[in-house]
Amino acid sequence: LDSSNKKVVNFYFRIFGTRTIGVKLRIIFFENHSFVSPQANLIPNELDRSYVLWDISDDLIQANNIDKAIDVATSIHDENTRELALHDISKALTQANNIDKAIDIAKLIHDEATKGLALLGISRALTQKGNIGKAIDIAKLIHDEVMKGFVLLDISRALTQKGNIGKAIAVATSIHDDDKITRGLALRTISDALILADNIVKAIDVAILITNEEIKRGAFLNIFKALTGVDNIEEATMLLH
Question: Smallest Cα–Cα separation from 1: which of 23, 19, 28?
Answer without folding.
Answer: 28
